[in-house]
Amino acid sequence: MTTTELARRTALQVLGGEPDDLTLRRFLHGLPGVDAVGLEQRSAGLGTRSIKTTSKAWALDTIIRLIDLTTLEGADTPGKVRSLVSKAKLPDAADPSCPSVAAVCVYGDMVPYAVEALGARHGDPDHGGISVAAVATAFPSGRASLAVKLADTRDAVEAGADEIDMVIDRGAFLAGRYGQVFDQIVEVKEACRREDGTTASLKIILETGELNTYDNIKRASWLGILAGGDFIKTSTGKVQPAATLPVTLLMLEAVRDWHRITGERIGVKPAGGIRTSKDAVKYLVHVAETVGEEWLQPHLFRFGASSLLNDVLLQRQKLTTGHYSGPDYVTID
Predict the structure, then answer these.
(1) Which of 78, 200, 217, 330 has its CA 20 to 30 A from that of 24?
(2) One Pfam family this chain carries (predicted)?
(3) Catalytic residue positions, numbered
């Protein structure tokens, strides 16, 4: 049974019927409404938790291991991608003990350069298991035909992408065309399959800043999971607000509830606007207190970030030496 077939069977069991507009609407609108005040209060409370000095080194290294080091600019070049990969492999050139990041995230046409720079395929110990993630499906708007979205995905997978970050059709979702969104995710998931039968991991970008309400974010989270997403991701980083702690908490609660129902673990990726180690630690606390520390692994939690790594490296240096390094200590991405 393929991953797509397995996901569909699980969705049928949870929904109690075919995943069409009517069944999905009944299920998604039957979910308990979100208490916005309660959600934000819980998040604010978790955000006040402190990390003891003895645990700070662990926290900083954990953050590094969970980063998708990202460049998603129209001016990206092969040289910039090669530099990004070099930093991903050894973030602190002066400290060989510094862990590598989880993945580099690029546009699909940059995938071959990232794969080449890594020097081997994903999972090879020579490059520390760093994945190549590609944004696809007409990122960031998602405004394209399904045929274009599937071709975009297949091109990235054939070029060597280990992970695909797809954007949902927010217009279709907000118009209540849940079946259309579900079907597109399923087809993109199928397009992630390689010739050898393995499948690239699929992250579903909700673009929470455009979904307007917590209830919509909760429904979109469940829809992405039901359709077979391996991760649910907050944002493209191109729309504000991007990742926030309350939104991430809400998505973690959806993942927690799905695990309770099915036993299946789904990942969460906040992306956009997370720039300091202090903020990232708050996300670690949210994860640990909501779904458990077992989720603090690259296959279950990621930070989508470009500038976060530099601040973590400076904090890591401070912890080691007792003083802050100058701004030229880390490379400018």
Answers:
(1) 200
(2) DeoC
(3) 165, 233, 269
